[in-house]
Design brief:
Blueprint (H helix, E strand, L loop, with lengths): L1 H26 L22 H30 L3 H26 L3 H28 L18
Helix pairs in contact: 1-2, 1-4, 2-3, 3-4
C-alpha cells in the first residue's frame, strides 16, 4: 500500500504540473504552432521552433502522465479494497481518453468551448487523482491498514 500511495501522489503531482504546462502552452499560443497537426508537429516528430517545442513537450508529458494514470488505476484495484479509492482512480482513467480527444480537438477546432471542455476534463482527472491520493493516505490510519501493529498500538517485530 505504501508504494501505491507514493504512485498516487506522484501521479497527482505530475497531473498538476501538466495542467500548469497546458496553461502556459495556451497562454503563449503554442497550441497552434504545430501547423494543425496532431499527434505530429511541424510535419514530423521533432518540433522546428520554440513554440512548437512547448506544444510537443506538453504532448510528451501528457503521454507520460497517461501511463501514470493507468498505473495508478491498476494499483488501486490491485492494492486496495476501498471502493472510493478504486472509483476515483477509475474515474481518472475513464476521463483520460476523452481528454486526449479534446487535446487533439484544441489543435483542429480552437474554440472557447473546446478549450473549456479540455480544461474541465483536466480538472476532473486532477480532482479524482487528488481524492485517490488523499483517501489512500487516510486509509493508512485505519485498523486494517495497520496489520503489522499489535493490539496495544506498538509495531510488532
Amino acid at each position: 500500500m505504501v508504494r501505491f500511495r507514493h504512485l498516487a501522489a506522484a501521479t497527482t503531482g505530475l497531473t498538476f504540473a501538466l495542467i500548469l504546462l497546458g496553461v502556459y502552452t495556451a497562454a503563449m499560443g503554442a497550441g497552434l504552432s504545430c501547423s494543425a497537426q496532431w499527434p505530429f508537429c511541424d510535419g514530423g516528430l521533432i518540433p522546428q521552433s520554440f513554440p512548437s517545442f512547448v506544444e510537443w513537450f506538453h504532448r510528451l508529458i501528457a503521454m507520460i502522465t497517461g501511463f501514470f494514470i493507468l498505473g495508478t488505476a491498476a494499483g488501486a484495484w490491485k492494492y486496495t479494497g476501498e471502493k472510493r479509492i478504486r472509483g476515483a482512480a477509475t474515474l481518472a482513467l475513464a476521463v483520460t481518453p476523452l481528454q486526449m480527444v479534446l487535446g487533439g480537438a484544441t489543435v483542429f477546432v480552437y474554440t472557447p468551448l473546446v478549450q473549456v471542455a479540455h480544461h474541465a476534463a483536466a480538472l476532473i482527472i486532477f480532482g479524482a487523482l487528488l481524492a485517490t491520493t488523499l483517501w489512500s493516505y487516510e486509509a493508512e490510519g485505519t485498523p486494517d491498514a495497520r496489520s503489522t501493529e499489535s493490539a496495544a498500538g506498538y509495531p510488532s517485530d
